[in-house]
Automatic annotation (TrEMBL):
BP GO terms, sorted: mismatch repair
Keyword match Membrane: yes
Membrane-spanning parts: 20-40, 186-202
Keywords, sorted A to Z: ATP-binding, DNA-binding, Membrane, Nucleotide-binding, Transmembrane, Transmembrane helix
Name of the protein described by the UniProt record: MutS domain V
One Gene Ontology MF term: mismatched DNA binding
GO CC entries: cytosol
Organism the protein comes from: Anaerosporobacter mobilis DSM 15930
């Protein structure tokens, strides 16, 4: 045993001095090399980002190729965190009806998480007064006219980057709730590795074994805390980038951006707190590569990133309210730049002319409610999510009832108006040559489904949705969209209930756009609703639609003809036509015995 101990000590003495010094020199050399690579790669990345932003500004987004994230349920949940926290004027039904997430994806010209989260919030909350929209319009127009500055700022926001895992505002909430106390074991880990390295240089025989023990211990404890620490390190990295952007914007002497500059003045307060966080908490990227892998080993050996993390958290919690305001301000600023870029990507658009008109309390035969005048004018209105859309023009001072066959364009036209009404009061942009309207609360009941979770049928879901619309009127008039009203019940009750529901909406001051196959409604509501329809054509056995809006109710029946085109047996179609002729002549359906004879 003594012989083994003597041999081990002799071995240490042989490899101790020169080898340890050599390893330390190699280690320091690698650190210097890492710093050089990191600086070079950061500059390269900055140039690449600037080029990408410049090329992308004002270019339309291909949702199938460029922005598939809107289809990711988890991503959209994180994206909507700030909106859910602050509240959304648009309800989930209306968002689903207009394909809200896809619409957002089309206009999401942002480069940072905070920018896209705030843009989602903007689109979810239509304004009901001039002031906020006027302020937005000034900034949006300024960036359209000053593209170079818009691109410069977008490049800064791109340096912040996006996280698909956690909301930026959720990060802030998490930071506030976590105890920012420096853990002694991480300080001991850092001090321990320093002492043993120094000891190994001075006394290799005494320092080498303790250094080995400390290395193993540090690596094990580092990995045991990695999941917790890394869950908030991402926020720190992005917060430092945001603070850097905030400091830069605060120095801008641009009149149009003065309010943003003033709100970002406190950014400098956090600059030193978060200094070098992007290096300390850096993620592995293809740009940094092996250099960052080296830094990862240094982190495991020293725990210096954990120590820094808890120090930062203590400081951030002290200025939480100011920090939150900075993040909100940057999000708002980038969302306006994104809207400017989105506008430039459109074939044509218009800034809406919006008038504010409060509903007036009235007493009518239908009971106390709201009655207001309406005036909605849309010239060459189109759907922004459709390739080569057909534009239509409409002017109404009351509700509109649309008729036409399936796939003729009724539902799409309802969605087109709804999208434009929402965008008019959010991003102050309409997909039309001209758009004039009052401010409205927008509701819809279009793409409804059975609620399996609650055990409700389609009809129950629909009438509850309509009830909520009727009960939601307030100082701001309601604009609502209903597709195939009360389709979940029998014909006689559907026509009767639909007539009275639409009439009730009219008398309550609700501006309603409804689509229906029931021709009877056009006769019953001729004095209360404007009538429009879509047509289809059958040419050489093929069904074709022009998607053009025509005045008046539909005057043709083509459903049975479509059955013929699709190859249904003549027995079916001929007998069906005979039934129609009988109904037209007598106003009722024949009994089975009468029809067979």
């Amino acid at each position: 045993m003594r012989l083994f101990e003597a041999g081990f000590v002799t071995g240490l003495s042989l490899i101790g001095g020169d080898l340890v010094n050599y390893l330390i020199i190699v280690f320091l050399g690698l650190v210097v090399l890492f710093c050089i690579l990191l600086i070079w790669n950061k500059r390269k990345q900055k140039r690449q980002i600037a080029e990408l932003v410049k090329e992308s500004f004002g270019k339309p987004i291909n949702l199938d190729e460029d922005k598939p994230d809107y289809r990711n349920e988890r991503y959209m949940k994180h994206l909507s965190f700030y909106t859910r926290m602050q509240g959304s004027v648009l309800n989930d039904t209306t968002k689903g009806d207009i394909d809200f997430d896809k619409l957002f994806g089309k206009m999401n010209h942002t480069y940072s998480s905070v920018g896209e989260e705030y843009l989602y919030y903007v689109l979810s909350n239509p304004c009901t007064s001039y002031q906020q929209l006027d302020q937005r319009e000034k900034i949006i127009t300024y960036f359209q006219n000053n593209r170079a500055l818009a691109i410069e700022l977008q490049a800064l926001f791109a340096s912040i980057g996006k996280s698909k895992e956690v909301s930026m505002f959720q990060y802030l909430e998490y930071l506030q709730s976590v105890e920012g106390k420096i853990l002694k074991k991480h300080i001991f880990s850092l001090v321990g590795i320093i002492i043993t390295i120094v000891l190994s240089i001075i006394q290799p025989k005494l320092g080498l074994v303790p250094m080995f023990v400390v290395i193993v211990t540090n690596v094990l404890t580092y990995w045991s805390n990695r999941q917790f620490a890394h869950s908030i390190m991402g926020s720190i990295r992005r917060l430092e980038s945001m603070i850097q952007v905030g400091v830069i914007v605060a120095r801008y002497e641009v009149e149009e951006l003065q309010s943003f500059s003033e709100r970002l003045e406190s950014s400098s307060k956090f600059k030193n707190v978060l200094k070098n966080s992007d290096i300390i908490f850096s993620e592995k990227t293809s740009l940094v590569g092996d250099a960052d892998a080296l830094l990862d080993y240094i982190r495991m050996l020293t725990h210096f990133d954990y120590v820094k993390l808890y120090q930062i958290m203590d400081k951030l919690q002290e200025g939480y309210n100011e920090l939150y305001n900075i993040v909100e301000t940057l999000g708002e600023l980038e969302s306006l730049i994104a809207i400017a870029s989105f506008r430039e990507s459109l074939e044509y658009y218009t800034v809406p002319i919006l008038q504010q008109k409060e509903a007036i309390n009235v007493d009518s035969a239908l009971g106390e409610g709201k009655l207001t005048e309406h005036n909605l004018f849309m010239e060459e209105l189109y759907h922004p999510l459709i390739s080569n859309p057909v534009a239509n023009t409409l002017h109404t001072k009351q509700g509109v009832l649309l008729t036409g066959s399936n796939a003729s364009g009724k539902s799409t036209f309802l969605r087109t108006i709804a999208i434009n009404a929402i965008c008019a009061q959010t991003i102050h942009t309409c997909f039309a040559k001209r758009y004039e309207s009052y401010f409205y609360m927008v509701h819809s009941a279009m793409s409804l489904n059975d609620s399996l979770e609650n055990g409700d049928s389609y009809f129950i879901v629909e009438i509850e949705t309509l009830r909520d619309i009727l009960n939601d009127y307030g100082d701001t008039p309601i604009l609502c969209f209903v597709d195939e009203i009360l389709r979940g019940t029998n014909t006689i009750e559907r026509i009767a209930a639909s007539t009275e529901t639409l009439r009730y909406m009219k008398n309550k001051g609700i501006l309603c756009f409804a689509a229906s196959h029931d021709i009877e409604l056009t006769k019953l509501l001729i004095d209360e609703y404007d009538m429009y329809h879509f047509q289809e054509y059958i040419v050489d056995g093929q069904v074709d639609f022009d998607y053009i809006l025509y005045p008046g109710p539909v005057t043709t029946r083509n459903a049975i003809r479509l059955l013929e085109v699709k190859g249904f047996d003549e027995i079916i179609t001929n007998n069906a036509m005979d039934l129609i002729d009988y109904f037209d002549k007598y106003g009722e359906w024949p009994s089975a015995s009468d029809f067979l004879t």
